[in-house]
Amino acid sequence: MTSHVPFLAVRPDAQYSSEVTTRDFADTNGIIDMETVRDTPAQAARALSASRVPAVVKFPLLVLLTFSLSSLLYSLVADFTGPELASVSRDLSAGWHIAVMVGWKLVELGIAWYMRFDYSDLAWLTLLSNVPHYFLLNTFYGIDYLAALVPLFIDVSTIAIPFALLRGMNRARDTSAPKTVNQAVAQDTGIQWVTGLLGASLYALVVYGSFYTWLPQYMVVHFDGLRSVQKAHDTTQFLLLAILGPVGYATTQFIFLPAIGSAANPGLTDPKLKPEKVPFNPETATFSETLAWNLGFSEAGFSRRAEILAKRTFILAASAFINTFVRAYVTIEGTEIVGAIGWASIWSLAAGVTGLAFSWVGDE
Closest Cα partner for 15 from 260, 193, 270, 304? Predict the structure, then answer.
């Protein structure tokens, strides 16, 4: 069965376009490396610049650039955002506080580098992982919107810029290179906005449901320095949908677009390129194919699209949980471990639900 997505295309007849050829898959087994195919001058210049840096020093340089840029930008805005954030922050002079924050940042960078994410991947993932922290500060601690948005922008840019300098663009987002049918669909602006609205709606549903059931009382009990829960009580589902609109769009960019637009996922629109599914054979099936068959996901195991969806959904859910927990417990005065776990779980659940919804859209 093919994806639901091609039927959303502005030009559905394009799925039979003769522009789809096998030349992108001839020498790569259907997988094109992220640092290949640069057709625009800007992409070519960035690739040339990155290629001049020895591979052995790229990651240490990435870490150095990230921490240096973060330190510089935070020092520049300290007079503006510092007083408000300091009013709710723990004293981070203890060695374990610093070790946890620095250690988690190194883990983030290491995983992102190992997973071969590009700067766009990291920008969206960082946004999705840090929004819960600043949403908490704004909603329950009265931190001004601008005082929350400025450090959020710094968090995103200080990890995206170094990756932009040292890592090329993911093939799924390369609008200048020849496209498979699924890449054309994934890069369609209308489809991205529709799936983004779906993602925002699911995030808003999870957060709104928590606000109007168990969360306010839970926050009062487990966040000792909490200032007010009135804003949570006054929040409507439509206001949440508007606030979380960028979050929904970010989930589309991090989960949906790479899965649908991967060069290894031409789909069944042209089975000659790389058929996604074959009849299930228990005698020759791999462990993953057998697992998928028994769980009812597919007649022939997990497709490449399903693998990317699952991996990215897991990474987002795990990153959102760990980052939200670490920042809530380590940096906010009066936060209990149980409180940080509860708050982080909301956003991890929202990420998981959104990934499942995108799986349905992709017909996995």
Answer: 270
